[in-house]
Amino acid sequence: MGAAPEIVVEPTAAQLADAVGARLVATLVSAQSVRPLAFLAVTGGGILEQVLAAVRDLPARDSVDWQRVSLWWGDERFVPAHSDDRNDRAAFRVLFDALPLDPANVHRMPAAGAEFGDDVEAAAAAYAAALASAADPGEDVPHFDAVLLGIGPDGHCASLFPEQPGVYVDDAAVIAVPDSPKPPPTRISLTFRALDGSSRPGRRRRRPWRWR
Predict the structure, then answer these.
(1) Cα 24 to chain center, whole Å?
(2) Residue 3's pLDDT is what?
(3) For the chain, which domains are there?
(4) Of 38, 68, 91, 95, which has fewest CB within 10 angstroms of its CB?
(5) Are strands 75-77 and 146-148 parallel, antiparallel or unpaired?
(6) What is the bridge-based pairing of β-strands 187-190 and 75-77?
(7) Helical packing angle, 46-56 and 13-32, nearest 10°
């Protein structure tokens, strides 16, 4: 069994964003001290944008070798790449455009149109294959050093909505979400197992931390 979560309660959203931003930088630096790449997964949402802005404004952000950060998304709206509904567009606008990322280490989820048209299942399968290619042998998900998640007012996490089929999937790392209760309705999401960095016995685990 994994360690019990460490729950940190902050009095305001701004203080939460600052604290999570500082903890994220420290986590990435620590990971890079022992491995060539630090793995980070992000999603979208207002509080996540505040966290990314806090990292952008943090002097210590330059202690991270951003070219050695492998960046992934926990979920994405399956809309055209230029749509403002995309989580990745907001993330780059707020933070990642200001960082010297290596494009080879940036793994955006597929967009509608272009290669996949409106085939969200094929797009999800392609992202699952990309994840597996970055994982240890025998695994289908890399070890994420940090996963930044927000919780919606309805309790959804990534694009996993309460009582929807996706919350019960444990035999896949990535799923298509064709009928999200929140628009846009078509999405791609990592499953809970993938967000946990794989729950298989023997995987390297760290003490998880959560803020609220």
Answers:
(1) 13
(2) 65
(3) 6-201 (3.40.50.1360)
(4) 68
(5) unpaired
(6) antiparallel
(7) 60
